[in-house]
Amino acid sequence: MEKAYRNIGYPFILLLFLVIFGFFKTYFGLFPNFNEHTTAIVHFHVFVLVLWIILLIIQPMLIRQKKYAAHRSIGRFTYILVPFIILSFIGMMHKQVSESSSKNVLVILDGLYLPLTDTLLFSTFYILGIVNKHNTAVHMRYIVMTGLVFIDASLIRSLAIWFHVDFFYAALISISLVDLILITLIFFDKINGRPYKPFLLSLILFAMVQTGIVILRHH
Fold first, then answer.
1. In terms of C-beta density within 10 A (0-12 exposed, 13-18 middle, 19 or more buried), how is residue 29 classed?
2. Is 66 left (phi over 0), alpha (psi -120 to 50) or beta?
3. N or C terminus of the chain with fewer C-beta within 10 Å?
């Protein structure tokens, strides 16, 4: 693993705390007395996503400790885990639609935009990571991007629920943070002669999704 990315797993510990913080009032803080809205699909969705973030923490550590066999075994396990993650996203979107009080299709689609684009981004980055699994530098960058996908939902919720920030401005703050992270990664990879194009492509894909968020939330 490149020396600059030896500790790349540690920032995902912060992401894990952000997820817990953002969903504390609506999920984690309710344990064990969950309400009727916390169905089996919700538990499953949380379980597989938290498991994915834990893997993002563990995998770089295994490489750093030269436990390559364990790293590869966990990598093969993701072939099973990722389809379950995608199914959990689909299940959550179905739950959201079925529980919606609105009959307005545009309102329903508006609510589905973030989980749908999160699913597409996550799937795209994972597939690109697997396609490039024999190119360690490129593989690592795309897998890192799968974690970046979860910042929006967690940070927007944290700002809106805990600090009462308007959803639109919470989204702008989250978008700015994600883009700042990507621009920083691109800059440092480029000046150090490392492969920056995965981060550049990721920035383009994120920007496309973010444009939709701004347009939908602004109106």
1. exposed
2. left
3. C
Residue 204 tokens, joined: 């383009």
Among residues 116, 124, 120, the alpha carbon closest in space to that of 142 is found at 124
Widest CA span of the chain, in angstroms?
Answer: 55
Is 168 in contact with 218 (CB distance < 8 Å)? yes
Query: Backbone phi, then psi, for 23, in 5-degree steps?
Result: -110, 20
Give 25-30's long-range contacts (Cβ < 8 A, gap of 24+). Answer: 25/161, 25/162, 26/157, 26/161
Instruction: Judge if pTM exceeds 0.90.
Output: yes
Q: How far apart are CA 1 and CA 66, in angstroms?
A: 10
Is 58 exposed, middle or buried, given 0-12, 13-18 or 19+ CB atoms closer than 10 A? middle
- For residue 67, give Cα distances in angstroms to 45, 71, 78, 102, 126: 29, 6, 17, 52, 22
**Using one digit for the tens of pLDDT, what is the confidence trace for 160-218?**
999 999 988 999 999 999 999 999 999 999 999 999 999 999 999 999 999 998 888 66
pLDDT tens for each residue of 44-87? 999 999 999 999 999 999 998 989 999 999 999 999 999 999 99
Within 10 A of 125 (CB to CB), how many other CB atoms are there? Answer: 23
